[in-house]
Amino acid sequence: MSLKDNVNAIKEELSAEEQFLESVIKAEGFWKKYKKIIITLAVIIVVGLLTKAVMGYIHESNIESSNHAYNALLKDANDASALATLKSKNPKLYELYMFKKSINSKDVAVLEKTKASITDPILKNLITYQIGSLNKKVVSLDAGIAKEFALLQEGYLLLQENKIKEASAKFAQIPADSTLQSVVKNIKHYSGK
Known about the structure:
Structural class: mainly alpha
């Protein structure tokens, strides 16, 4: 019996080794067949990860340098190198800085020049509103809070001309859920109309 058990054990061991050898041969065949694809995929993954890391580093570096430039401009508005750095590293922050600077100037010519160079539609609306406000003219704007401000200003100018019905019509165009509704109510209340 023990000889029979030993023979069975040897058969099982040979069968296991056979299966292992068979799987190694299959893996080798798989490797030979798909070696180029596997290597290409590995290279693409490595290059992709490296590219992502480099792009992240560049992005962080741009943010850091644009923040330093912005802080330098807050300290000295005439710093041309900081302005150039801000323009090249973070164009949106540059536009916002130029918007702030032109609004503070309260000069229509400066505002017009800034409006021509700005691409952000919200800032364009706000500059258009500011120009109209300085010229005491009514401006039509696209949408949002700037449009509501324009309606409020137009209604107020109509009230000053004693055109109460037209002013009320302008005030009615401001949405009921707008933050400007409290201002409209105060204007109506204090104007006595």
